[in-house]
Amino acid sequence: MQCHSPVCNLPVSKRCGYFITATDTGVGKTVVTLGLMRLLQAQGKSVAAMKPVASGCERHAAGLHNADALLLQQQASVALDYELVNPYAFEPAIAPHIAAEQLGVTIDIEKITNNYNRLCKSADCVLVEGVGGWLVPLNEEETLADLARRLGLEIIMVVAIRLGCLNHALLTAAAIRAAGCTLVGWVANRLPPLGDSAQENITALESRISAPLLGVLPDFQGVSASKVADHLVLPSRSPS
Prior knowledge:
Layout: E1 18-22, H1 29-42, E2 47-50, E3 53-54, E4 58-60, E5 63-65, H2 67-75, H3 82-85, E6 88-89, H4 96-103, H5 109-120, E7 125-129, H6 144-151, E8 154-160, H7 165-178, E9 183-189, H8 198-208, E10 213-217, H9 225-229
Parallel strand pairs: 1-7, 1-8, 2-7, 3-6, 8-9, 9-10
Antiparallel strand pairs: 4-5
Helix pairs in contact: 1-2, 5-6, 7-8
């Protein structure tokens, strides 16, 4: 898939932002995104984030809102309309392409790209949080991988450290490479219940994933962007 976006055509050193993906759903993408936003803000950068597609949204007077997208909106350095942060919001907690089909809606990567470009004009750095894992379908032909490629962003992968994480993480890292994207780092999220081999699994992944480990998150009680940021570092090839 060829990218025609002006953002995609910029060299990596001229872009500021990351695409946050994960090995599965519910493994901490939003938590990591909030922490990365805080780190960038600590460098004096204005930061925005978007969650282009979200399922399991709640209905409010202003429409369907996703709890994770609201956290990203609140953490942003600039005031943003909710629809800009989360253009595709679906109420059922199911795969987004299925939710969209049930409503007769097509998730359009071009619409998401337009929102992203608008955010780039509002902030120094823009982070994009995926939905589910790397290859979650968006429509009949495209997946999250196609969106990440279209935006031209480097990738940060969140890994839930639990039984099965080795296979999930290594397959996801391989799929990111196969898509022609650059994995610049990964985050280990120690989710309960922790097995006896949590540290051994992290060590095994460090030796097998060429991208650096950016942090190991504990089991937080009351997550805040600042708390998460304390356990993370930005990739060494941090955008300028």
